[in-house]
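[recover] target loaded
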């Protein structure tokens, strides 16, 4: 359990004050007892054994890289199975076709692209380049959670390209930064270069959690490559972009308020070492986009960032939105109340309205930026 600093915050002497939310008000609070939490989400988490108080991690900031990689290799199948269980029992989606494309990335490696689209396409449609979660370290675009997400988006009238990028650990690793970012950028450029062939109306890069990091970073990299004009928008969900998980600061209060609610800051901070083993990129905005300055952000396309109320990562997504606005970028955000990190994607069966609202929001944003592109051309 973290120890909260005894500083004056919001007019109180220390965080452990009942007037404050979450673990600001009670540093020993469990998620099941937080009155803000959606009961349907809690029920789904309970059924999967996810409300049991966390045990001490077998790894920490002092663990060797090999120990961290071994932990990731052991953990990845567990997370994949949890995602598969979450999607089991759902009715099949009709009206969607899927295909596999293989491209060569800017590093000369092969990259698999999983392309989902509506069966009937009588006009060009917005194209979503989707980057899956997993902290840039774990998981696969072929997983059940992401396969379903792409199809759900495609049903609404979108082309969705899932990118099988290299991970810093697990079955698709170990390939630390910038390998995965290069793959995501390669896929985005491929989609832009083949937009007419895939019958696309514009390019939106989207992702959640670690994929949200990569979505934001891909746009920054495109600006660096002088290709930002091919990207029409970025939609990030609960992006993991600060790398302030071990050495927290008060500018991101949700790291204190929601630590341990679905995500654990010690775990995130420890696994961040796998993404950047030497720490050489700790202040590099391409690795951790919250480090971006005004010059980095100026001239970027419209952004939308969705965050979750009970997520430790909530405030870094909001902070990035504010940075974008200050740089003159069209940027908006929303907070989904009552849920933990990307629960809007995971608990499809328990909270279909929350899931559908997130699908609809991605669709709305993609339609908006593509209409704007058409109007300006």
């Amino acid at each position: 359990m973290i120890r909260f600093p005894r500083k004056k915050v919001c007019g109180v002497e220390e965080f452990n004050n009942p007037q404050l939310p979450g673990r600001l008000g009670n540093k020993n609070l469990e998620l099941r007892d937080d009155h803000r939490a959606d009961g349907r989400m809690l029920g789904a988490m309970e059924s999967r054994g996810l409300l049991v108080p966390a045990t001490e991690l077998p790894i920490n900031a002092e663990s060797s890289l090999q120990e961290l990689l071994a932990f990731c290799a052991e953990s990845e199948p567990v997370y994949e199975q949890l995602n598969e269980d979450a999607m089991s029992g759902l009715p099949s989606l009709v009206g969607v076709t899927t295909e596999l494309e293989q491209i060569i990335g800017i590093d000369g490696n092969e990259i698999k692209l999983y392309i989902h689209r509506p069966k009937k396409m009588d006009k060009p449609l917005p194209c979503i380049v989707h980057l899956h979660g997993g902290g840039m370290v774990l998981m696969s675009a072929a997983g059940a959670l992401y396969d379903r997400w792409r199809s759900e988006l495609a049903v609404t009238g979108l082309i969705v390209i899932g990118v099988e990028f290299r991970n810093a650990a697990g079955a698709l690793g170990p390939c630390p930064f910038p390998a995965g970012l290069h793959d995501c950028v390669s896929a985005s450029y491929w989609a832009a270069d083949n937009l007419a062939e895939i019958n696309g109306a514009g390019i939106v890069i989207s992702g959640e959690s670690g994929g949200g990091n990569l979505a934001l970073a891909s746009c920054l990299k495109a600006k660096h490559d002088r290709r930002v004009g091919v990207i029409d928008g970025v939609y990030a969900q609960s992006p993991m972009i600060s790398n302030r998980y071990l050495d927290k600061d008060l500018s991101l209060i949700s790291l204190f308020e929601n630590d341990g609610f679905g995500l654990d800051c010690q775990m995130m901070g420890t696994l961040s070492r796998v993404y950047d083993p030497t720490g050489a990129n700790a202040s590099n905005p391409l690795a951790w986009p919250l480090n971006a300055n005004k010059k980095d952000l100026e001239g970027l396309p419209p952004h939308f960032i969705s965050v979750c109320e009970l997520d430790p990562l909530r405030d870094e997504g909001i902070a990035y939105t504010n940075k974008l606005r200050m740089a003159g970028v069209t940027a908006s955000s929303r907070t989904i109340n009552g849920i933990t990190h990307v629960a809007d994607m995971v608990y499809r069966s328990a909270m279909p309205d929350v899931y559908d609202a997130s699908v609809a929001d991605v669709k709305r944003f993609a339609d908006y930026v593509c209409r704007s592109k058409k109007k300006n051309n």
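[recover] notes: The CA atoms of residues 37 and 338 lie 4 Å apart.
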